[in-house]
Amino acid sequence: MRLTTLFATLFAAFITALPAMAQTQTALVAGGCFWCVESDFRRVDGVTDVRVGFAGGSQPNPEYKDVASGRTDHLEVTQISFDPEQISYRQVLDLFLRSIDPFDAGGQFCDRGMQYSTAIFATPDQQPIAQAAIAAAEAELGKSIVTPVREMAPFYEAEDYHQNYANSEERTLTRFGWITRKDAYKNYREACGRDAQVRRIWGSDAPFVGG
């Protein structure tokens, strides 16, 4: 194949892919431990990618050790990319709100501190949708929730070893011993009581833990 023909073929394929690429949208949420939110949303049809990191603070390029220790004003967050033809932004938020404790302003479950508090970071176009999702959650629960809608903020991706931690076969030394990150995550989530508390609040509407 001549070089010019090859270039033309590749360019045509790129142009064809542009509409699909442009359709991807993102949601940025804070729900306590970002490993948990990431693990939940990797199971959702229509979600194309999930990355964990930090947002909401004033320090550029924060590191996990600083955020986790409370030395910054960032929150642990999860960036959820999705195909709006398969799942809407509102549906993503409905799932998110029903995967957290929206009454806890001091953190989430066993993780305490501002860095583990909940939030929805939204663009101007997303904010009315986010507010509506919160209003619907409050109506279902019968009382106000503390999860705020905040202005969209820069997303700083966490270190590589945090990405897809819940499915990693890499071994690490934890309080549970020298085990895979996958097993460490499973033990952490159970010990932290996340699923049990979400089930108490949301019952059969808890999408990731059952009723």
Q: Would you mind describing this structure in some detail?
A:
The protein has helices at about 5-25, 35-40, 65-70, 90-95, 125-140, 180-190, 195-200, and strands spanning about 25-30, 45-55, 75-80, 105-110, 110, 120, 150, 155, 170-175, 175-180. By secondary structure, it is an alpha+beta fold. It has a domain at about 25-160: Peptide methionine sulphoxide reductase MsrA (Peptide Methionine Sulfoxide Reductase, Chain A, 2-Layer Sandwich). A hairpin with a 2-residue loop joins strand 4 (about 105-110) and strand 5. The chain is globular and about 45 Å long.
Low-pLDDT residue spans: none
CATH architecture of the domain at 24-160: 2-Layer Sandwich
Helices and strands, in N-to-C order?
A: HEHEHEHEEEHEEEEHH
Rg on CA atoms, Å: 19 Å
Helix proportion:
25-40%
Shape: globular
Distance between the termini: 59 Å
Number of separate strands: 10
- Quote the CATH topology of the domain at 24-160: Peptide Methionine Sulfoxide Reductase, Chain A
Give the integer mean of the pLDDT values. 92
The chain-level structural class is: alpha+beta
The CATH homology group name of the domain at 24-160: Peptide methionine sulphoxide reductase MsrA
Q: Strand percentage, roughly?
A: 15-25%
Largest sheet geometry: 6 strands, mixed
**Count of helices?**
7
The CATH top-level class label of the domain at 24-160: Alpha Beta
Strand order of the largest sheet: 7-6-1-3-2-8
